[in-house]
Design a protein that fits this description.
By secondary structure, this protein is α+β, with helices and mostly antiparallel strands. It is built from three helices and five strands, in the order αααβββββ. The longest helix is centred in the middle third of the chain and has 13 residues.
Length: 111
């Protein structure tokens, strides 16, 4: 049914009315930042620290590993191939992710 008062909208313009619209694009980001409340890094017990040290000694370049670490108040679990273990600079690299030894809560070989 065509309107007698308005001309028909061209097809190229009709699609634009269905595009997503956000009047406040920064609002979603601001809400996400407020939802994330950083938690303090949990302290490892003496037994857990000893187990972590033993497991870290077994990690070798080219092996698969699972690592749980804390960065910016967020606990992250990663599984991947060990690219590098640098005991001098105290970091572990899983694929492209560099993780400081001080951030690691748990690690093990995932072979």
């Amino acid at each position: 049914m065509e309107s007698k008062t308005r001309p028909k909208m061209p097809l190229s313009q009709r699609a634009k009315q269905f595009l997503p619209f956000s009047a406040l694009p920064e609002l979603a980001e601001a809400l996400a930042r407020q939802e994330h409340v950083p938690a303090p890094r949990p302290e490892l017990t003496e037994d857990a620290a000893g187990e972590l040290n033993r497991n870290m000694e077994n990690l070798r370049r080219g092996s698969m590993a699972q690592v749980v670490y804390v960065r910016a108040g967020e606990t992250i679990k990663i599984t991947g191939m060990v690219s590098r273990v640098d005991k001098t600079s105290r970091f572990l690299q899983i694929v492209d992710t560099k993780i400081s030894f001080d951030e690691i809560l748990w690690a093990c070989s995932a072979s």
